[in-house]
Amino acid sequence: MFDKILIANRGEIACRVIKTARKMGIKTVAVYSDADRHALHVQMADEAIHIGPPPANQSYIVIDKIMAAIRESGAQAVHPGYGFLSENRLFAEALEKAGVAFIGPPASAIEAMGDKITSKKLAAEAGVSTVPGYMGLIEDADEAVRISQQIGYPVMIKASAGGGGKGMRIAWNDQEAREGFQASKNEAANSFGDDRIFIEKFVTQPRHIEIQVLADKHGNCVYLHERECSIQRRNQKVIEEAPSPFLDEATRKAMGEQAVALARAVGYCSAGTVEFIVDGDRNFYFLEMNTRLQVEHPVTELITGIDLVEQMINVAAGKTLPFAQKDLKINGWAMESRLYAEDPYRNFLPSIGRLTRYRPPAESSHDAAVVRNDTGVYEGGEISMYYDPMIAKLCTWAPTRAQAIDEMRTALDAFEVEGIGHNLPFLSAVMDHPKFCAGDITTAFIAEEYPDGFAGVTLPEPELRKVAAAAAAMFRVVEIRRARISGRMDNHERTVGGDWVVVAQGERFPLTVAADHEGATIQFQGGDHHRVTSDWRPGQPLAVLHIDGEPLVLKVGPTSHGFVVRHRGAEIKAQVFTPRQAELAALMPEKLPPDTSKFLLCPMPGLIVTIDVEEGQEVQEGQALCVVEAMKMQNTLRAEKKGIVSRINAGPGQSLAVDEVIMEFE
């Protein structure tokens, strides 16, 4: 076994590998760029070596710099994580030449399966059903349009060396094919150093289901069942689960055996994933094989009890798999929610900055439920513009799917993140969505259910009444503290009354609070009541209460006459008034937001790549105005309506903060 391994990666996955290596008694070496000097993976590793400036193409994906770090540290093996050099044949060959073990597949398998064009050809030759498409190299946008017309819209434009949703676009017409080809080509070049593009038919209403395979160097290969990854946004997975709520045992077995056959055909060893799209009749089609550890591997670990990183290390050291296919059973259900530094209220655009508060829910493991949080950040750390926006992977396990979802709801409610925009509200909203709860999902779920983007959640009446009851009970605690302030004059005692009106989500709830030493009984006008118990104290941003014995977790912040409450994807201003205050508050005019309709504002901190219009030019609705790059993704900003550009305030190469004015309109 190895004494020391180097992790050629950063962030969450580097921390994940370090944990298993530590468990196995293996020392670890981290590498870091200037931007990651104080990163969590650097702190966790036994050694850390600096490899260059922040951009990945000057540090993490420069093979010579990684090889120099290996020589300096004396590491005997390298784990590449995912992304960066994990599917780079030249890196695997360089390691082999240097006599360093690659904790991954052989270079020949990476070349065969890591390239999407080659892998589809090999899959077709092996008798695997594949999606119709053009597997040759595409020279320019004109050729991309011609090919797209031949295949028939819609088409998927993909980077051959891509991964993680980068370098991928769906085109529904010639204009989108032309724009998508160039954008995918640029993203692929920046992220992978390989700008080759191919095009295939986009299968509408598909499910994305993948099979985890694991093979050793002695001819043994197994599949560890499937993961459902259909909840995606911009081709980037958001929520995954294992097993799939859609597959039956026969389809699962057929997909698994086909995945193993494909792995054997290319002499595969280590962990890998064969991705399929599955239609409504459970017909499945090969998409690609990822010759690395997947981001969503924890859900497979939770239902099988197998540490995939440990097995990868053992396989690289020449050990035989300690189990056969018949030993691999499905135990319970697992969910994974990816917490991204993306603002759901701004169409999920990247958000960067400092994590002023980062408090994940407590990790736990017992027979009834598991909560696991794989992360690479810490409170006070910075989310950089140079890398992937993923902050953490929150996972839950329970005996049934419904229980796993319920555990995830509670864990998301308890996850505290401040300082940046993040997608926690959206994740909570999905967990409560009827279609998701029923398992009725496709890769079009987000586009169909949130066609106008995400604007928050409106809590149903029963849940809102619980929040109102909690707000009243908490506000009484605040008022009691205010009434008992030290230094009072003897004849200025203030009595806290019991009659209140809670205004939340546009509704008014007249109620009475009757408190005792154990808690408070909240009596609503009309007769119904709730019993509230909690040890919450003013100033605590997380309130864990019980309403009629059932847990209720709220994130709370103080505001005038009450709280800003965040719960289950909703952000609610819960104001608590005396009856007279409520009468007067109802007469106050509503403050309207400023009119920004004549400005194009930068929706996130980023770099202007191109300005596609000129001053004085008339633009049409939907016309591309400029391209802004952030976190390795290029975002095209389009005109919301017809107008004339009166002024352009920014140019290519300029870095802008969020809401800076890019251009103005007449």
Describe the structure.
The mean pLDDT is 93. It is globular, with a radius of gyration of 27 Å. It is of the alpha+beta class and 666 residues long. α4 packs antiparallel against α5 and α7 (141-151) crosses α8 (174-192). The protein is 27% helix and 33% strand. The longest helix has 23 residues, at 461-483.
Structural class call reads alpha+beta
Q: Percent helix among the residues?
A: 25-40%
Q: Which assembly state applies to the chains in this document?
A: single chain
Shape: globular
Rg calculated over all Cα atoms: 27 Å
CA-CA gap between termini: 69 Å
Keywords, separated by commas or semicolons:
40 strands; 666 residues; alpha+beta; eight-stranded antiparallel β-barrel; 27% helix; nine-stranded antiparallel beta sheet
Provide a brief overview of the structure.
This protein has 666 residues and is an alpha+beta fold. Strands 14-13-10-11-12-15-23-21-20 form a nine-stranded antiparallel beta sheet. An eight-stranded antiparallel barrel has the order 25-26-27-28-29-30-31-32. Strands 3-2-1-4-5 form a five-stranded parallel beta sheet.
